[in-house]
Write a structure and sequence with these properties.
By secondary structure, this protein is of the alpha/beta class. It is 36% helix and 27% strand.
């Protein structure tokens, strides 16, 4: 039994004929007739008397109409109310994101989003613990790199290039660095999620750095500060580069490919 057939039955009864109900709904008379017959077969009762002069309800049909019509009207009214509530974009959006990227990369996006949708409230949960999932009670998750949970719908937000940097003071006290293989002789500063370095240069040469850093942290901002203080060489997003740090173009290597910011819902 289809809810649409019940509603068509209500239209026919309230309009008094198949013809008027057809004009009201835009559904051909033959289709209305077939749908009511299917409804009667599903219910195993006869709802309407049909003759050449007029249409009338059977006793069972009258009782069925009196019970169903108010319920149908209430359902239609609730559906209309729900549609009106959903016309505008409003409510609270709960998002989880790594604190590493919140200010430099995400804040402009959040500002543009909230400006475009003034009725939306943003509840942002930031985390720095690499083992934290922060999935509970969140509508959307922003993550870096490939996502393991295939059950979630993921969309790429933007790409981020990572480069090697060091302070002029650190470089002044070190032997010239001519190749990425010589990084093992230097103090490396590593921060999540850039713990394993896969480097490449403009010539297509690639090199993987797996050694443990002299300084490691779950926050890239801390690693950048350590590089600024002259403690060693760090791999950070290019958008974090500042004049106080010098790009490691002496070996012309950067992170292979690019990290992708991914939003999952």
């Amino acid at each position: 039994m289809k809810l649409d057939d019940l509603n068509l039955f209500r239209h026919i009864v309230e309009n008094g004929s198949y013809t008027l109900a057809s004009k009201k709904t835009g559904i051909p008379v033959a289709t209305l007739t077939r749908r009511i017959q299917a409804l009667e077969e599903d219910l195993k009762i006869k709802l309407l008397h049909r003759d050449a002069r007029k249409l009338s309800l059977t006793e069972t049909g009258q009782e069925f109409y009196e019970r169903c019509a108010p319920l149908l009207e209430q359902l239609i009214a609730e559906t209309d109310n729900l549609s009106e509530c959903c016309q505008g974009t409003a409510g609270t959006l709960k998002v989880s994101a790594p604190s590493n990227i919140a200010m430099k990369m995400l804040q402009p996006m959040f500002t543009a989003f909230l400006t475009a949708y003034p009725e939306i409230k943003l509840d942002l949960s930031l985390f720095s613990d690499t083992s934290a999932t922060q999935n509970e009670d969140r509508h959307a998750l922003i993550r870096i790199g490939p996502q393991r949970d295939s059950s979630m719908i993921a969309r790429k937000l933007r790409s981020v290039k990572d480069i090697l940097v060091a302070s002029p003071e650190y470089l002044a006290g070190q032997a010239p660095l001519l190749d990425a293989s010589e990084l093992s002789k230097h103090h490396l500063l590593k921060g999540w999620p850039l713990m394993r370095w896969r480097l490449s240069n403009k010539n297509g040469q690639q090199f993987s750095i797996t050694q443990q850093g002299r300084f490691e942290a779950s926050e890239l901002r801390v690693v950048r500060a350590a590089a600024k203080d002259g403690l060693g060489i760090a791999l950070i997003p290019m958008c974090w580069f500042k004049k106080i740090l010098r790009p490691a173009n002496w070996c012309n290597y950067s992170q292979t490919g690019q990290h992708h910011l991914v939003i999952s819902i």
